[in-house]
Each structure stands twice: as structure tokens, then as C-alpha cells.
Amino acid sequence: MKFFVDTAEIDAIAELNDLGMVDGVTTNPSLIKKSGRDIIEVTKEICDLVDGPVSAEVTATDAETMIAEGRKLVEIAENIAVKVPLTWDGLKACKSLTDDGHMVNVTLCFSANQALLAAKAGASFISPFIGRLDDINLDGMEIIEDIRTIYDNYGFETEILAASIRSVNHILDSARIGADVITAPPAVIKAMVNHPLTDKGLDAFLADIKAADIKIL
Ligand code: E4P
């Protein structure tokens, strides 16, 4: 399973990247706003740091302008994936940009039927938003499961990028189902290391190290 980091914060990306945890990065207008940076500048900096796909989202809602924005975004670096919304115009932009050989991440996906359309439009990635579905009492994981089944049934190569991840259990469930990629905030990825029995066990070992004066160096 590939790990993308869902942030535009350079330091957080660099920390995880140094550990080999970063296969790509996703940004969106809200994350760019939060960073307080210029979209082109910060996206370039991320692309310089990370080898894998870096999603940068268009701002337009009509296909023609989305395509023009996409063409500008892909000039930033070779590893840009243009992010377009799952609207009819977004699908038109997806088809045009992927036909030109660019990576496209179709975002704001909330149903398996939408994901089917994105795959047919040639999307490189489909981003179903798990957390936002859970927020309205729907089952985000069920959508991931349905998309996995549909893509496997017909051999679609679009990668399932589980997005809007809010907890470590979202990552575990996505891995169980076989999502190709998760994108999660750095804090959620780092929280995967936590286990109370690890802390308890380490405390006991440290007490014995002290009691027996065990030294290696
Ligand atoms: C990533 O591609 C999405 O934009 C992001 O995961 C959305 O997450 P949120 O629902 O927590 O804003």
C-alpha cells in the first residue's frame, strides 16, 4: 500500500519522507490556504522533495479553464497529478489531460458510480472521501469496498486513493479492503506507531536496564 501525505506543510512532509514513508503528496485549496503559501511556489517545493505523485487541485469549474490550469500545473514538475473535481466538467478535463499523458486525480468522490465514471474517463487516481461520508452517517469504507470490486471486475487501472482519512482505523480498513493508496494527515500516519502495550513494555525494560545497570556503550 502506498502512503500519500495529505498536507502542504513542507516540514511535516520532509520528516516522513526521510523515513521512507512518503510515496506521494495530496493538496487541496483548503490545505494551500492553511499553509499560507503561494500554490505554485509551495507545490514546486513539495515536488522537489518528493519523488512520487504530488496532487495539485485546479480552481476552475469549467472544463476548458480546468484544462488550461492543469497544463500550467504540470509545468511545475514531472510528478504533478492534476486534481479535478468529480463533476461532468471535471471528467472532461480528466479525459483531455490523461489523453495528453498527464496524471489526474479525480477528487470529491462520494459514490462507486462516480468512481466508475472517473475510471472510464482515464483517471490515474480516484479519491473517495471516507471521513466526510462518515460525518453524515454513511459508511465511507463501504464505498471503498464497492469501488475495489468494480475496478477488479473490469480491470480498471485507476488507483483507489482513500482520502479524507481521520483515524488509524481508516488506514487499517483501507489496507484490509485493498485500496491502492491512502492519503492521510501527518499526525494520523504518525499515530499508527502508538500502542499502550509498547509503552508499558518499554517502561518495564527501562526499569530493568536501570536496576541491572545494563550498558552497551
Ligand atoms: C485529499 O485528497 C483530500 O482533499 C483530503 O483527504 C480531504 O480531507 P478532509 O475531508 O479531512 O478535508
Question: What ligands are attached or bound here?
Answer: erythose-4-phosphate
Main β-sheet description:
8 strands, parallel, barrel
Beta-strand residue percentage: 15-25%
Structural class: alpha/beta
The 3D shape can be described as globular
Tally of structural domains: 1
Give unreliable regions as ranges: none
The whole-number mean of residue pLDDT values reads: 98
User: Could you give the distance between the termini?
Assistant: 38 Å
| CATH top-level class | Alpha Beta
Order of helices and strands: EHEHHEHEHEHEHHEHEHH
CATH topology: TIM Barrel
Based on CA atoms alone, the radius of gyration comes out at: 20 Å
Kindly report the name of the CATH homologous superfamily.
Aldolase class I
What is the percent of helical residues? 40-55%
Tally of DSSP helical segments: 11
| Reported CATH architecture | Alpha-Beta Barrel
Would you kindly provide a written description of the structure presented here, covering whatever features stand out?
There is one protein chain. By secondary structure, the protein is an alpha/beta fold. It has a single domain (2-212), classed as TIM Barrel (Alpha-Beta Barrel), CATH 3.20.20. Helices cover 52% and strands 17% of the residues. The chain has helices at residues 10-18, 29-35, 39-49, 63-73, 88-99, 112-120, 130-135, 140-154, 168-177, 186-191, 196-212; strands spanning 2-6, 24-26, 54-57, 80-85, 103-109, 125-128, 159-162, 181-184. The chain has an eight-stranded parallel beta barrel, surrounded by six helices. Strand 7 (159-162), helix 9 and strand 8 form a beta-alpha-beta unit. Helix 1 runs parallel beside helix 3 (39-49), helix 6 (112-120) runs parallel beside helix 8 and helix 8 packs parallel to helix 9 (168-177). The longest helix has 17 residues, at 196-212. It is globular and about 70 Å long. The chain starts with a strand and ends in a 5-residue tail after the last helix. The model has no long low-confidence stretch (mean pLDDT 98). The site of erythose-4-phosphate has 11 residues, from helix 7.
